[in-house]
Amino acid sequence: MEYEFKALGKDMSAPSKDLETFPTPANVKLVSFTSDEVTSHCPVTGQPDFNTVEIEYAPDQKCVESKSLKLYLWTFRDEQIFGEGLAGTIAQDIFDALEPFYCKVTLEQGIRGGMQMSAVAEVVRDEA
Amino acid sequence: MEYEFKALGKDMSAPSKDLETFPTPANVKLVSFTSDEVTSHCPVTGQPDFNTVEIEYAPDQKCVESKSLKLYLWTFRDEQIFGEGLAGTIAQDIFDALEPFYCKVTLEQGIRGGMQMSAVAEVVRDEA
Amino acid sequence: MEYEFKALGKDMSAPSKDLETFPTPANVKLVSFTSDEVTSHCPVTGQPDFNTVEIEYAPDQKCVESKSLKLYLWTFRDEQIFGEGLAGTIAQDIFDALEPFYCKVTLEQGIRGGMQMSAVAEVVRDEA
Amino acid sequence: MEYEFKALGKDMSAPSKDLETFPTPANVKLVSFTSDEVTSHCPVTGQPDFNTVEIEYAPDQKCVESKSLKLYLWTFRDEQIFGEGLAGTIAQDIFDALEPFYCKVTLEQGIRGGMQMSAVAEVVRDEA
Amino acid sequence: MEYEFKALGKDMSAPSKDLETFPTPANVKLVSFTSDEVTSHCPVTGQPDFNTVEIEYAPDQKCVESKSLKLYLWTFRDEQIFGEGLAGTIAQDIFDALEPFYCKVTLEQGIRGGMQMSAVAEVVRDEA
Amino acid sequence: MEYEFKALGKDMSAPSKDLETFPTPANVKLVSFTSDEVTSHCPVTGQPDFNTVEIEYAPDQKCVESKSLKLYLWTFRDEQIFGEGLAGTIAQDIFDALEPFYCKVTLEQGIRGGMQMSAVAEVVRDEA
Amino acid sequence: MEYEFKALGKDMSAPSKDLETFPTPANVKLVSFTSDEVTSHCPVTGQPDFNTVEIEYAPDQKCVESKSLKLYLWTFRDEQIFGEGLAGTIAQDIFDALEPFYCKVTLEQGIRGGMQMSAVAEVVRDEA
Amino acid sequence: MEYEFKALGKDMSAPSKDLETFPTPANVKLVSFTSDEVTSHCPVTGQPDFNTVEIEYAPDQKCVESKSLKLYLWTFRDEQIFGEGLAGTIAQDIFDALEPFYCKVTLEQGIRGGMQMSAVAEVVRDEA
Amino acid sequence: MEYEFKALGKDMSAPSKDLETFPTPANVKLVSFTSDEVTSHCPVTGQPDFNTVEIEYAPDQKCVESKSLKLYLWTFRDEQIFGEGLAGTIAQDIFDALEPFYCKVTLEQGIRGGMQMSAVAEVVRDEA
Amino acid sequence: MEYEFKALGKDMSAPSKDLETFPTPANVKLVSFTSDEVTSHCPVTGQPDFNTVEIEYAPDQKCVESKSLKLYLWTFRDEQIFGEGLAGTIAQDIFDALEPFYCKVTLEQGIRGGMQMSAVAEVVRDEA
């Protein structure tokens, strides 16, 4: 198996919205990534939010390359966005880049005010 | 994304039944909040009850803002109510404020008399 | 919400088969109680058995009051009964007292002879 | 409830294939036993295997008495049998003794060569 | 039960693609193996990847012998392959060797860049 | 052993600073109580704080009766006090009531602003 | 190693204060037993208390036989005693029966009123 | 107890090196804060590091106010610093602000390259 | 590093009291082995006991080879011995074979009669 | 803080015995690294061993750079060495590179033959 990834030559110290892909290997039905290192800023208070994000997709032709996914998640570090919106945005971006059968994103925020919020966003291919 | 929340100017040291909302971001299918800091009083003995509450809803147009939810949950601190009734009341109030597809509340009480009680309340939109 | 419970005046130091109830609050779909303090005696050896019991029911008009449930579970302390039978008996008694849509009892015994037994008993309302 | 078990007079220091039963108490739908003390020998190397076994059945007329089950499981201590075969044999013997609606046995072997094997065997009553 | 395994005479210090089998014992419906000792190399960076692999299959005529499975998993130690591809390859090889009703492989990679990847590959018998 | 406790006749629905004691039984060297149901209010924001408190003491002549301890801990429910101060106050009150060899109080606050505070207070008998 | 235990002929369905011993095997420095099946009654309310008890001793000439210890712990099932007193009594009885270098008993009560009590009792041989 | 904190009027959406204090309450011997929301940047790769930080100090006259501590920890979000250096810097800043008997900082980094780093820094008052 | 172990040619399907050793590598101060697969028989009831054994030693010139240790532990499978005696015997045998600075054996039995026993045996080199 | 690391320009896909260092930051007393991705080969069977390694040192002038440590640990991937020897070798190499006050290495092997081995190696600076 041989690939040529931009990731190899790329500046790994800069966030990037660019999601690289590789051809889905035979038999693969489901792929997921979990990271507890996704931060953003609360639009109400401006303070940093710490999130655990699980991205799950059923690949068709393309799988996402993990290093470019890391740089992508890093891009939210200075954005002001609710956790609910962050889940919805990631789901859409993954869906646009991979064109999978579906993509589901589950986000859990760090505890705030004694409460833990979680949100589920999903984009499903329109089979019509 | 820009919102103007009353929460920002509001007295954060006072409980309030007022639930604020914001427009549901694209792709979001499910939101939940869990808090282990919801207290009330037992109607039989008058003693404080300590509850863990999970609120789950499938949003339509509106999501609940988390700080106003915290102030809302605080309002039960001096009420006399069974855990079963507390679950049912929260489910109804969230349903009325957000008009979601459904709202489910799961409440677990602290151990009393060697027993732990949990109750599930649910309000589902009438599709008729 | 106002109730008048016999439990308030009752002798809390005596086991009792009498299960008190209160009207089911709005929206409540499921209630469960878990206790790891239910003991009985093995009919084969006469020795004490230690059980964890979970009682789950879907309430119709009535919910069980927790203190009377505690006194009820206490009544098995000196009975000789298999764990399987204990689960079945509790399920029937709860069903008779509350007339719920269904009642399910899951019992786990303490480890005996290197084995842990669990039994599930269920009584479902006859809709015919 | 009164039973007369051979187990009471029986030599508890000898393994035995004889499974005793008692009449299923009312309302009981499911019974399971878990033991992490079931050993046998590997047919390839001859070395002892250590297994955790869960036996689950939906009783019809008969439930298995736990002490006789313990003595039964002990009988495999010196047999040479794969874990897969052990699961299948226990499921058949329980099925033959109790004539339940079904019997399912899940066996997990101790880690060997950095791998943990588990096997599920099931015997279902032929309703034809 | 008597088998004659090449494993007994075989050089256990060498990886091998050769999967040995034995006849499925009666009643066995599902078998799984879990190992956290499966390594390979990342095709992007060349660095070693550490994976936990769960192989689950519904056996028809044949079950896999565990020692030969261990030697098989060892063969990936020096290959350059994505985790997604590794899952897909193992699923196909097990399927080809055992001809089960289905074979499912779940692979979890060690944490890389603050993310944990998991992939599910499945090969199902074509019943047409 | 016979005691006469005010707790028996006392109004159990009212907080009380009054700590009851009983004579230390022979051989007892250390007693501790842990509760995760101790609440107070933050002096900066006025919002409720949720604390887990462990009280440990080396008894001399007196041990604390547990029901009166519960009513005592309840008295902080409406006080404005830092967690550090709450730990110090409980330690002093227990020390004054029991005159033990020492009393140590460890308090853990619920997570606030992504941080969990814990404080240790101790009062040791002056042996001079 | 040959012993003749009364336990073998004894009625195993009756509690007994009689602790049997056997000669300490060579090199043994510390022995402990943990049971979460020790119950008694609260002297204040008369209700059953559920305790986890750990007995630790440094044996000199004698070790305690485990079946007789089980029957001994059973004797508290109908006694009215505080947890603190129960720990102290067990420590003294073990000390008297075994004459060890020391005996330490740690008792944890089931949660009552949102609190968990634990007590440590110790008897140390007087070396004077 | 009455304090006047700048925190109340302060802009809570901006990081700040300014650590506020309050007078140590009686009997308090040890205070600690744990946060898993402390981020910085790796000086080698420039990528974000995620750290769990525990700050422990033995207070003399002053305790740190928790909101100002949160804003302080936030200031490292855009700094390039090794985890070892971050631990050392926090320990020194806390020591300078509170003049405690000692201050100890334990930092655990998120897993990088399959490894987890932890560092302990300590500043102890010079008693000479 | 080259060794010639009898283990290589030895019949691995037979228990053996023979403990093989190899020269202690530089800097090694402590070695331990933990196994939850050590069985024996109870001298009172004759039934199998299941034990978890931890062997810890401070090596001087010799370390124990792990395969021979496994065959050694297997030898107790059909012996009648109390857990306390088993701990003491293993400690002595390891001490005799390795002549370490000390050897400590901690044995935990499977739960019997609702109790778990553990025993610690130790042999320390006589420095006189 | 500015450093110039060879790691930045170095081929990250090749193992290397070369340990890079940086000057110890102020106040740092203890540093540790834990990795569960250290493999080697058993000198008896030639099969791969999987180890969890914790390296702890008290730094004097130098700390180890984490990327070079990762490449260092990778070098054992094809070596034949006992776990005990691996612990001792790593401890010596770290000691030689950093000249710390002491270096301690704790290694836990994956389960083999139902046993888990762990070894502790330590090198302490000779203060004579």
Walkthrough of the structure:
Ten copies of one chain form a homodecamer. Chain A has one domain (14-123): GTP cyclohydrolase I, C-terminal domain/NADPH-dependent 7-cyano-7-deazaguanine reductase, N-terminal domain (GTP Cyclohydrolase I, domain 2), CATH 3.30.1130.10. Chain A is built from three helices and six strands; from the N terminus they run H-E-E-E-E-H-H-E-E. Chain A has helices spanning 6-9, 66-74, 83-98; strands at residues 21-23, 28-41, 48-58, 62-64, 102-109, 115-124. In chain A, strand 5 and strand 6 form a beta hairpin. Chain A binds chain F through residues 50, 110-112, 114, and chain F through 50, 110-111, 114.
Shape descriptor of chain A: globular
Please give the alpha-carbon distance between the first and last residues of chain A.
35 Å
Neighbour order of strands in the largest sheet of chain A: 2-3-5-6
Main β sheet profile of chain A = 4 strands, antiparallel
Radius of gyration of chain A: 15 Å
Strand proportion of chain A, as a percent range, falls in: 35-45%
Mean residue pLDDT of chain A: 92
CATH superfamily of chain A: GTP cyclohydrolase I, C-terminal domain/NADPH-dependent 7-cyano-7-deazaguanine reductase, N-terminal domain
CATH C-level name of chain A: Alpha Beta
